[in-house]
Prior knowledge:
mainly alpha
Amino acid sequence: MANTKQKKEKVISEGNKASALDEEIDKAMKSVTITKFRTDQLHEGWRHHLFKMSIGVVLLCMHQYSQPISECTIDMKSIKNEIELEPLTIAKLLLSNGLVELVNLIVAILLCRFTSMKEAGDFSTRTYFTAAALVPFCLGLFFNTERCGCVVDSSGSIDENNIVERQFPVAIIYHLIVTGCYWFMKMGMDSCNMNLAAVTKLQQQLASKNSRKRK
């Protein structure tokens, strides 16, 4: 009788422990799920703010692009009576003088599209990847053509006495901001997914163990 009683008490004790463990795992699952949901909401808010910033950056890049083009146009008009330029030469001068700002604007537009995505993008998303690939090209153009100007002399070359300093491409700075923000968001979501996977695995293992005991 004593042995039977002890066995019953042992079974009840093990059952209570298993029940308590189930409750703790359920609490952990709820906590991890809520944390992931709140993290996702926080990241959605970040992306929304980045998108609004992107619009401002695009407008600023458009302003940067307009400056070398307008200066080049004014310069060529000022020497119109002295030198006659071919339309193709004018187009080449406008393009070469504003190429840095044009690439800068393209990067800003790509980042704007990237941050406007409903589903969170990552570093392998085409728009981000293309923008990242253009960043070194834009920097190379900037450091090789730090000064801009379209005033040409009688030989058709740019007059070095009438050039101005080029503004640093603002989209490059914004690209660093977007990259940093998305990196932190990726780290946070990876941590949530890892915790959720660990709790789910533990829950499955416990359920499998309990089912074997019942058999």
